[in-house]
TrEMBL record:
This is Secretion/DNA translocation related TadE-like protein. Pfam families: Tad. It comes from Nocardiopsis terrae. The chain crosses the membrane at residues 12-33. InterPro entries: Rv3654c-like (IPR021202), Tad_N (IPR028087). Residues 7-53 form the Putative Flp pilus-assembly TadG-like N-terminal domain. Residues 101-123 are annotated as: Disordered. It comes from the Bacteria. NCBIfam families: tadE_like_DECH. Keywords: Membrane, Transmembrane, Transmembrane helix.
Amino acid sequence: MRRGDAGSATVWWVSLCLLLWFVTYAVLLTAAARLERDRAGTAADLAALAAAARAHQGTRAACAAARSTAEANGAALGSCGLSGHTVSVTVTLPSTVLPSTVRARSRAGPAHGIPGDITGQGP
């Protein structure tokens, strides 16, 4: 072995370990961000469905149901709108990984015709 190569294996192993640590950290960060996005989407979907179930009672009752459902899922209701019997909601969820919030939107409406609708197709 030449005298100039002494200790070079240590440098390579440390570099490899740092690279592996960085890749692992990036994968875990990406997985956590995707999980938060999915949690926000689920909270928005459930809030929209809860609001759609009460859409026949008016905007106030529908949005109250959306708000309580979003809060039960750890999210905050950002907006809630009723157009006919279709509800559109936006929820926000604080991120545990990044210093920001995760936002998701969802819409829900009746699965069948609205009672009193002659065509049976809804709006």
